[in-house]
């Protein structure tokens, strides 16, 4: 069923893509190496009930699952010129030396990237030792957050221990770990950190120190977003952010070891230029970073008229936000001269709970016993994010005869416009928009067929204990 659906969907899609977004191949590859639209996405129209005007409410305004927590300063050796001093945990000079001599143990550049984020707040769901590095070759540890002095802070008391354990587990299998810096709630000081040469040197030196201290294999920059104060009006933003970011990447590339991998989590379109429009030429960035991860999720969140969380395309041609889907994102970046083989498609392991009564989508068979309401990660039955494993464990979804079907009053539907599933319970008055093995297989197969570098799942804790989402991604990429 999955392979048949993928073939039928991708054939016309790839014809359209070939006309709209020619794939550029980059001759030079480095040793190795989420962002999303915050407003809603249209997948409504003939035969579709996911709303064109759907926008996120509550937790849907975040590009990733967000926890409210205090930050903990973990490292700093350099202070921004003129900045007030504070009590910090100082890294010894040996960590800087380690950064200059360490080498990556991860898989070679020719391998497809099969990656996921490991969030430090999710350790009670999956420990570093439980990550199956036979299935993954990269893990991004989320997050370290820059402060006003351009030091890096972790967000949990056990973050440092978790990072060390994750690196140890990855290296035991010859795989790599990157530290992801920033995130939706951690991007307040990026603009000032890259704004001039002195600040860039301070920031880069602190990154180099933490790189060596934790024996990392790479750095992932998750700035949300250059030129835009997205999460808060207090976030720094400047028209020069993108040009300054390029200078930052050049310095970071020259400072870290030769084998270090640099990546960036990005929106579905290139970073904003000084004129407020997406940059038309990203080739200079491709010379400095190994790949970008398209954060193609959170396109629509909880709403009474919900849309797809992570649409593959605007297949029906009726989206209010036609640029916010995987196919359009690849077109936007490759048309801006960023090579397809340096693009990784970000995919979600979570969905959204909505209180809604939408209908008229393609209906899949369902196994019904009793009415059930699914509770989101925030404890709500009307809004919020929910991990795929929770949709299954709470009883709304089950496997039956090799198919994933609705359960306990939920009926599974398939939205052809976005190539994503959704669940509806009339009795519970709930709709769950999410991705499952079927839709992730299609996304990964698309990524493979258009020559992308691979896939990256946010985050690893959303998969089941038997890795059904990850295996679907691997199968879509043509990996065993």
Automatic annotation (TrEMBL):
Return the GO cellular component terms, semicolon-separated: extracellular region
Q: Hey, what's the signal peptide range on this chain? A: 1-20
Q: Pinpoint the GH18 domain residues.
A: 112-480
Catalytic activity, per the record? Answer: Random endo-hydrolysis of N-acetyl-beta-D-glucosaminide (1->4)-beta-linkages in chitin and chitodextrins
Listed GO molecular functions?
A: chitin binding; endochitinase activity
What GO terms in the biological process aspect are recorded for it?
Answer: chitin catabolic process; polysaccharide catabolic process
Q: Which UniProt keywords apply?
A: Carbohydrate metabolism, Chitin degradation, Glycosidase, Hydrolase, Polysaccharide degradation, Signal
Residues covered by region (Disordered): 49-105
Keyword Signal present in the record's keywords: the answer is: yes
- Which superkingdom? Eukaryota
Provide ranges: composition bias, Low complexity: 49-63, 71-105
- Listed PROSITE patterns: GH18_1, GH18_2
Q: Which family does it belong to?
A: Belongs to the glycosyl hydrolase 18 family.
Q: What is this protein called?
A: Glycoside hydrolase family 18 protein
What organism does this protein naturally occur in? Answer: Calocera cornea HHB12733
